[in-house]
From TrEMBL:
Residues 387-485 form the Peptidase S33 tripeptidyl aminopeptidase-like C-terminal domain. Pfam families: Abhydrolase_1, Abhydrolase_4. SUPFAM superfamilies: alpha/beta-Hydrolases (SSF53474). The keyword Nucleus does not apply. Residues 1-20 form the signal peptide. This is Alpha/beta hydrolase. Keywords: Hydrolase, Signal. Coiled coil: none annotated. GO terms for molecular function: hydrolase activity. Residues 94-240 form the AB hydrolase-1 domain. Belongs to the peptidase S33 family.
Amino acid sequence: MRSIPIVLLAASLLSGPAGATPVAAARVSLEPGQRAYGQIRFEPCSLQAPGMPVAVEAQCGTLEVAENREDPESRRITLGIGWIPVDGIADPDPVFMLAGGPGQAAKQAYPMVHAAFRDVRRSRHIILVDARGTGDSQPLVCRDSEGRANLTEGTSEDLDTARDFARRCAETLGREADLRFYSTGEHIDDLDEVRRALGVARINLVGISYGTRVAQQYAKRYPEATRSVVLDSVVPNSLVLGADHAANLQQALDTHFERCREDAGCSANIGNPRELLDQVSQTLREGDIAPVSYRDARSGEWKEATPEFGHLAILLRMYAYSPETATTLPYLLEQAAGGRYAAMLAQAEAITGSLTEQIYHGMQLSVSCTEDADELRADPAQDASVLGNQLVEFTQAQCAVWPRGSRDPVFREPLTGDLPVLLLSGEFDPVTPPRYGDEVAESLDRARHLVLPGQGHSVLGLGCAPKLLAQFIEKADPAALDAACLERLKPLPPFAGPYGWEP
């Protein structure tokens, strides 16, 4: 069976950024090619996500912090930090981009959204802090028996296998890290320690997906250090990660399938995608399917695999994130229903390979097990959905053997007050639907929630959103934004065949 995978004293500004606010007359000793931002030394580097072609030139540095801040004798760990400098004069409040997951590294995730910050970068530095447990910050990588970074060694339906994998991973990682101290609470303290080391008084937070949880928690704990907040694909503090995922995905899929039924070409050529999904799911769950040859989407090599429900599940989960890929689902289901599984296998394999290299599963477990596992409950109402309670049971099994830290007593309380907050959601987001953004905005006095028509998860770089982002950070006034330009965004039509939609 296939598995389902589930961001001190300021120096003088010698070689440093204009706009950093000095807090003391300290000087950083630099080697040739280095630059200083506050008390942190940086040198040229290139940022790139594993398996992704996009790279961004940057400056990279490090900062040492305590693993357990309550114990002065605890081990020290190193945080990996990226800096995208402004070419000219910079405003004094940089932007901290907070990555998703949980389990993504900020420096690896940033190249995929670099274009969204094109206008912001004219006047503000971008700071990227790899969350502890990811990237260059004491990475917590779980590997399978063949040494590959993987989310589970077997199938997520096999809870014993998932539990055993987590136990072995915890035992291995626990030799060099105390896994109780790698969750959101520690991450926001790290962010503030980086802020102080840079020598700046206030920062702007841009959180994406799980990063929106980090941004809200930081703004609650450090309101005096927060100038503005942008939340893209919003996770409310009240949300138990994983609890709603099956229901949200099913709602998004039903929406896409209904659009196929309403489209003449898709309806005529594909039929009813929901009925096809039920048919394919049953066939794959029953098994007894002969191995199928398919071409690896990344290497071009011919491979062979037995189609299983896990292939379909990962495809449905991840392709629903983006309208470009979601539109292909009816066609892929039609192919599988006819016994043609090659396309499904190729796409599922490509997704799995990309996810397992970009998500640091150890950090993901430290976050989920500390902050959410005790509130996760299987919901019988979700048994009829395509994912059912599989993700909940999978998380519960792994968290049963994973060390847990302490969740802040006010963790679930909403962010409140008059802090300027801009919220962005995609209309068809299968993970963080627009109602989540509405919930967060309701408790804020100066918030504005914009829903991008026809879009999915992570929308910061779409349409005119980059210009709105820059305008908001410039003025910190969400009410002043003219967001009419977002109305130009439209849903893509569903595929009606191998070459796309009908003309």
